[in-house]
TrEMBL record:
<feature type="transmembrane region" description="Helical">
    <location>
        <begin position="20"/>
        <end position="40"/>
    </location>
</feature>
<protein>
    <submittedName>
        <fullName>Uncharacterized protein</fullName>
    </submittedName>
</protein>
<keyword id="KW-0472">Membrane</keyword>
<keyword id="KW-1133">Transmembrane helix</keyword>
<keyword id="KW-0812">Transmembrane</keyword>
Length: 53
């Protein structure tokens, strides 16, 4: 958690929601599915010998 300071120098204790931190894991999972599927398709095309989609 990142601590912020108020204008008078005290710590601001409010909890802040970090959108990028919350979306990082689902985004990585979706990217893994997309690129993993793409890689499997390319490997299958190479093994079977042509663009048969």
């Amino acid at each position: 958690m990142t601590r912020y300071r108020t204008t008078d120098g005290r710590e601001d204790l409010r909890e802040r929601f970090h959108w990028f931190g919350a979306l990082a894991i689902p985004l990585a999972f979706i990217n893994g599915l997309y690129f993993g599927g793409y890689a499997l398709r390319k490997i299958r095309q190479y093994v079977e010998g042509g663009p048969m989609d």
